[in-house]
Write a structure and sequence with these properties.
alpha+beta; Rossmann fold; Tumour Suppressor Smad4; 2 domains; 10-stranded mixed beta sheet; 6-stranded antiparallel beta sheet; 20 strands; 29% helix; globular
């Protein structure tokens, strides 16, 4: 079994915990290749090349963004983007050793507080005897459906997308703080600058929402935004996407819902709506209304965008 470890070189936490991980791999007698990212998109390229060369396990030391990039490397996109991407090796597995800002995908597997030690044990167990599970992933197409990408956990637009943009722009001073604080700080700034835009959301060919919108999200996992329980019933194994919209909320109303979203309480507000489906299309109608798309903490173009669930398309160590 060939193993690649991808380390997010821009994450101080990842660099801090790597010696511990390296020691445990060496103590277990596990051979591996180590790679430190150098630029955005790097993890996708490295994972894809490694899988073509026979690697069977890719583990990420980092957060949701690096994990999402690595997951994209497990697939080849078709020239006809209407066709779903092809897995390079359906038996290859992805693993996370959480060391990022939000670690939301790991939270969905471990609980509210994702910790490193259980993830190391899971990886070591898998490398001794493969035991990965097949999970769903999102296939997205942004920029008027012309730019393909893979998303593992959740994608947000509106205030969520603007918040992600601000988190990514934060300097070294803010990186000293917890992921929850950094997301909350960015959300306050996004809230002050946000204006509602008209958005159409179609789920499995049926209109779900059309009107001014505060936030739209498409979720595969439970958490987003550094521990917010965006969709409490979401599952990475059910072949469905959870689609959430919030509209007509005042700034004060948004602040109230942000306080309740950590335990899923926002869904009790009638202005927050939830639907489930397999194919989601989100459209804005004016060029100046195009919204940034956040997917697993990365920015992935602008609306219009389409999401399709790829059921059990990726094996994950969990």
């Amino acid at each position: 079994m060939q193993t690649l470890i991808i380390i997010n070189n821009s994450a101080a936490k990842a660099k801090r915990v790597w010696p511990l991980i390296e020691q445990q791999l060496n103590d277990a007698g596990i051979p591996f290749e180590r790679y430190e990212t150098k630029a955005a998109g790097d993890a996708s390229i490295k994972a894809r090349n490694a899988l073509h060369s026979g690697t069977t396990t890719v583990a990420v030391v980092g957060g949701d963004g690096t994990l999402s990039e690595a997951a994209e490397g497990f697939f080849e996109f078709n020239n006809d983007l209407a066709q779903p991407p092809r897995p390079i090796n359906p038996d290859a597995a992805l693993a996370i050793l959480p060391a990022g800002t939000g670690d939301d995908f790991a939270r969905g597997m471990q609980g509210k507080r994702a910790t490193l030690s259980p993830s190391i044990e899971l990886l070591l167990s898998h490398l001794r005897e493969p035991n990965a599970m097949a999970i769903d992933v999102l296939y997205g197409r942004s920029d008027a459906y012309q730019t393909p990408f893979i998303c593992l956990n959740a994608s947000t637009m509106g205030i969520g997308g603007e918040t992600a943009r601000r988190v990514l722009a934060q300097g070294s001073f803010m990186r000293r703080f917890s992921g929850e604080f950094r997301f909350a700080f960015a959300a306050v700034g996004a809230l002050g600058a946000w204006r509602e835009r008209r958005v159409s959301v179609v789920v499995d060919g049926r209109e779900f929402f059309d009107g001014p919108m505060n936030l739209t999200a498409v979720a595969n996992g439970l958490y987003a935004g550094g521990g917010m329980m965006l969709s409490p019933a979401a599952s990475i194994e059910d072949g469905l996407l959870d689609v959430l919209t919030a509209s007509g909320l005042t700034r004060l109303g948004i602040v109230r819902e942000l306080a309740r979203i950590h335990n899923g309480g926002h869904l009790r507000n009638p202005k927050v709506k939830l639907e489930r489906g397999r194919l989601v299309r989100i459209e804005t109608f004016m060029a100046h209304d195009a919204m940034p798309i956040e997917a697993d903490g990365n920015l992935r173009g602008v609306t219009p965008v389409q999401f399709e669930v790829l059921p059990r398309a990726l094996k994950f160590v969990m």
